[in-house]
Amino acid sequence: MEQVLITNINKQEFIDLIEQIVKRAVGSRNPQITEIKERPIGVSKAAQILLLSIPSIYRKSKNLEIPHFKRGNRLYFYETELESWLKAGQRLTKDQLDYLSEIYLQK
């Protein structure tokens, strides 16, 4: 390891130097390491998010059409999974379909 000799530095400059080094080290951490814990939501909140009735939520859960999990007699959902489920059902526009068909035919 390379040795560094620091001379003529006052206490505040030394503290500032350490703060910069720590900020740089903390800033370079991998952001994927810190996970955000998402709390499960119930049927009524899921119905509000999806703009569906509560019986529709139960029906879609029973038919395995919607991502959910069950503990006892209760259904639970994750908001991010519901949003992903909604996005997965997105239909392409005519222009997007035309573009994709052109690319496919060029192969």
What are its keywords?
single chain; 107 residues; mainly alpha; two-stranded antiparallel sheet; 5 helices; 53% helix
What this model shows, in words?
With 107 residues, the chain is mostly helical. The chain has a domain of 64 residues. It has 5 helices and 2 strands, in the order H-H-H-E-E-H-H. Strands 1-2 form a two-stranded antiparallel ribbon.
Quick overview:
The chain is mostly helical and about 110 residues long. The chain is built from 5 helices and 2 strands, in the order H-H-H-E-E-H-H.
Ends distance = 56 Å
Number of helices: 5
Helical percentage: 40-55%
Largest beta sheet: strand ordering = 1-2
- Which shape, going by the Cα principal axes? elongated
Largest sheet: 2 strands, antiparallel
Number of strands: 2
Helix/strand class: mainly alpha
Low-confidence sequence ranges: none
Strand content: 5-15%
Order of SSEs, N→C? Answer: HHHEEHH
Whole-angstrom Rg: 26 Å
Averaged pLDDT, please? 84
